[in-house]
Amino acid sequence: MVKNRGEPTVERSDGSLSCRGGADNDMPARPAVLRSVVFPILLLFVLQSQAKADQIDDLVTQMTSSGDYKVRLSAALNLAKAGSKRPKVIRAFVKALSDSDKTVRGVAATSLGKLVDASTEKSLRDEVLSALKRARDNDGNSFVRTQADKAYAALSAMVSGPALTAGGIYVDVSGMGVGPKVKGFSSGGALMAKAALGSFRKEAAQMLTRWPSGGSPSKGALDAKKMHGFHVSGTLVELKESSAGSQVTVACKVSMILASFPEKSMFGFLEGGAAVTTSSSSQEIQYAKEDCIAAVVENLVAKKIIPTIKIKAQ
Fold this sequence. Notes:
Elements: E1 9-13, E2 18-20, H1 32-65, H2 69-82, H3 87-96, H4 102-115, H5 122-138, H6 142-160, E3 169-173, E4 177-178, H7 188-203, H8 219-224, E5 228-244, E6 247-260, E7 266-279, H9 282-312
């Protein structure tokens, strides 16, 4: 089956969980005649996605380059409505904060407050915060200053993360690595850490994964705030490829541990696996490896680790 990166066929197994992603859930393989029907549908989906991307690019160009403020305003409103969080779009709105028209600047400020989130790269978030602060403090129009101030406040709160509160939870996500059986994929540890942190932000935003003052808190610092500390780590145990015709299946296995922090006394061990089917393109195989690892880590964190932490912290 032909899939794009956004829709991998994933088969997971973590002991109690066993499921098969995609439209063929728990069904036998379809005859070849059915596959010939599915392919044009998927191809149409890819073409539609490309058309949408081209439309976004056109709107970015209109908003940042048109000499007619009405065209720039229309493009800004349509970009905001599209909700694309691509770095190119976000940077276009940053540029639009300096537009000659106050309404365009106001729309840009409001849009940045909605589009920038935890998934935005830190360097780009910092760039947005700096631009919004300048608009808040220096723009000549009160409406623009107000919108910039609201967006800046919202993003500042998101960046600073949850507050230190009595009974709160701090999770140290570190020590992710690659096992000896995995060759040629040294970035596996960093990818696992990114997936784990993303899952915590999405599923348990109230848990601290970054200490406000930087570094890692000592036991005394946690006790002073009456906070619970946990440590999460993991290892990419296996990463394999197998071919069948024009398709390649990437299989991965991950093990993760859950421990107290800062003592790092382990009390939980989890394992999970996944398989992603893709084309034989080297780029798609690379994407499949990343998707496979991320899918397993996100699943283990969301379904096993976070619920366990909540129970232990009671």
